Amino acid sequence: MSFLQPWMLVALPLALIPIIIHLINQRRFQSTQWAAMMFLLSANRMNRGYAKIRQWLILALRALVIAALVFAIGRPIASGLLGGSVAGSITGRGPANTIVLLDRSPSMQASSDGTSRTKLETGVAEIAETLQTIGTQRLVLIESNAVTPREVASPADLLELPEAGPSDASADIPAMMLAALDHINANQLGQTEIWICSDLRSHDWRGDDGRWSSLQDAFAEFGRRVRFRLLAFAKPAIAGSTVTDNRSVRMDDAHLEKSDDDAESEVLISLKITADEEDAEVAAQSVPVTLDLDQSRSVVDVGMRGGVGQISGHRVPLSREQTQGYGSVAIPADFNAADNRYYFTFDTPPPQRTVVVSDNEEIGRVLKLAAEITPDENLQSVAEVVSPRDLAGISWEDVSLVLWQAALPSGPDSGGPDSSGPDSGGDAAAMLQSFVDRGGRVIFFPPESSGELAASAELFGMQWQQWEDVEGEHAVSSWRGDADLLAATMAGSGLPVGTLRVNRSVGIEGEATALAKLADGSPLLSRVPTPQGGVYFCSTTPLAKDSSLAADGVVLYVMIQRALAAGALSLGNTSQVDAGAVPASEAERWQRLAGRDSALSSENAFVAGVFRDRDSGRLIAINRSADEDAISTLGDEQVEALFGDLPFVRVDRTAGRSNSLVEEVWRAFLILMLVAMIGEACLCLPRLRPADDSAVREGVSA
Description:
Blueprint: E1 2-3, H1 17-26, H2 35-43, H3 48-73, E2 76-78, H4 86-91, E3 97-102, H5 119-134, E4 138-143, E5 150-152, H6 173-187, E6 192-198, H7 202-205, H8 211-220, E7 226-232, E8 247-258, E9 265-275, H9 280-283, E10 287-293, E11 296-302, E12 304-305, E13 308-318, E14 324-330, E15 341-347, E16 352-358, H10 361-372, E17 381-386, E18 401-405, H11 425-437, E19 441-445, H12 450-455, E20 463-469, E21 476-479, E22 504-509, E23 513-518, E24 523-528, E25 534-538, H13 553-568, E26 574-578, H14 584-587, E27 590-595, E28 609-613, E29 619-623, H15 636-643, E30 648-652, E31 663-664, H16 666-684, H17 691-701
Helix pairs in contact: 1-3, 3-16, 6-8
């Protein structure tokens, strides 16, 4: 138990006053032996024990009255979340510094019934109320969009800040922790409490990120000067249930198609709906999808089967002159409004061009074939195979995808063997960097010879190691089937990644996200995080002696086509971008065409909607990332492992609950005081004499 006014506890010795008065009164009178009184005392000796007990009870109740009054004035609070703050218990004030790490990701917008307060609103309100109650000298907010410390005047301001409202961008909890650490060090803060409000989604916390070990070591140096308070919303929206009754909609494709004579134009739309329900009857219901396209609206019923519903190639007619536009698809309201709408743009599809960089004729032929065969007959796809020495002649303006199977080029300042000259590795590295910054996609395959591996430099923070033999007929142990190049199809069926045979693979060093892993834990396919484009590293080649990527060509074909389609989007006049992937400064100049009008222009990059770049006229659709539709959360043991031995307290909450984090219990002490006073008064009442004793005395007197 903690106290908001602990200095009042110094008055607790006042509870001894009734006892002191009793002892003083006992010494005020001298005992004198008197025969008549001795006879009366002898007659009442059997009741002496009860009288002593009654006197001690009266003293105890009087002392309890004073103690309860002191406790009530001290304003006691009952909360394990605030326990252990020594400084606060002595001074009666809250922590000197409070840093709030606020997860604003779409999953935090879920509520218990779709109408009550969301997780985010509940968390902000409870933190604000708690800090107002216990007090804090300095309050700093670090929210998941900007990840920049912002000083807040008072806890009540948290309720009004737009930067504490909903967002469509995923959170990066380790980055927010690093920002808090840097703020503590830069300002040399003393006693500090770090409040974390999150729903523990795995993709937001990134439990396998190497930054967590560094964070543990850095915060451990502060000892108990820095304490962590986790306000977790990991429980289901319905208390005691695993059913969340939530559906999400996501566009898979929207492109313009014209007839041969250009007399008609149509938009072909493909989308997917996924449901979280475990109830098969609920998951099998059809869902009405509202399609808004250029101020026209239509409704399409999508049947659900096994919690998944989809439509593919749904045609929406347009005027013949229209070549560009935007729209959205929406499903009925449920427990989370953030995943009920998805925005899209469409344009005349640009030609898809792939450059295969390899000196191996067989590998070049396989990769060229996989890139040129398009799944849509209306799309044009061209691929060419070039040697690493002929890159200077490539026109990069219309390239969507680069498949690189050669030694990694060295950067211009690396001092490597090929870092100078007209066709140097430095020029190649610079061209690849510029290509990725523009939004292109690159998939790297390892070179065959050990000499080329040894000559490979570090590129995009990654570097090839050596060839190693892989044991087992089917060596792929796990892969990500929820997003990226190896995601399952719209029908929900997964790619046959597990049936791939991998005979040899090359180790790779660097920070990347493994999309597929071999049995020994080494990555088969990895993605390097970049602001715009996509960079992937595949640790084997399509050669028969290395793997069955060419023989079992489904996986290779799908991953190349997906990378090609994503890279082609950067060439057109429209684009689809994940919220938070574009720098906020760049998005500020965009004009909002659709979406939440109340959002600040400084947060255009983080809010779902459709925007027009005022400089280029380009249409940009911003949506939540695919990771946001995954519902996996960290387990209790995983959370404890991330914090290790750091001073850490966790409180689990549920969206919509109105209970405060701190509860003042002084009323209970006042009630206790009143009960004690009543009990003391009852004990002080004179004893009622029996009626027969009164009658006897009356007869004697007569």
